[in-house]
Amino acid sequence: MNKIITLAKSLINLIYPLHCASCGRHIESVNDRGVCDLCLKKIKRNPLPYCPSCGRSMHTSEDVCAECRAMRPFFSSARSTCMYEGALKELIHKFKYNNRRMLSGTFAGIMLDFIKENPDAVEGIDIITFVPLRRNRALARGFNQSKLLASLIGKSLGIPVTECLEKTRLTKNQNELSRENRLVNLKGAFRIRPDIEEAVVRGAGILIIDDVMTTGATLNEMSRALIDRGADKVRCLTLARGI
Which of 61, 159, 180, 195 has CA atoms 20 to 30 A from the CA of 35? Predict the structure, then answer.
């Protein structure tokens, strides 16, 4: 059966050649990642040391970073597997805006490798959730990239995935705003979905999945909403960390 599948992929590749989503180099039909090995090697992991609270990369080992000392986040910890730069930045952009859903398996695999190396990232987790999209944005994009990653990670770990939250209002794109305005932009922007019973959240350890973390404003506001409704703790995991 595997030989038949491989042959079918080879025939399809003759008619519709596969190319790396990053560099455009031709890739073999057996490569179902959508990225060539050379570009995968260019993806840079988030280096140690980083803040034990928000996961921000630091030059020296400290208790927590200056921002977390000034304003403790609502999440217990946030971790990002890689740096949001170079090949990965381009791949994430194509994933989200060019409908390259094939990349979801590659991205989820990178995050699962991180979890294997850092099991504390999912310690005590009962539920996995993800950053919701407003209906109009989800329709325009065709899918929710965070939901797709969460589904793959949850399936691999055997942890249920639940859409716990919804956005209460339309907000500006975070990447268009300064750090200060990002914090204000999302203040109170999330709430528990009406169809989610309080017992689901109360006392639960919840992991939020997203593709990119920059200031952490989105993850912090989501964590606030979950903690306010009785979640025991909230952890966050993203594919990439922006500066």
Answer: 159
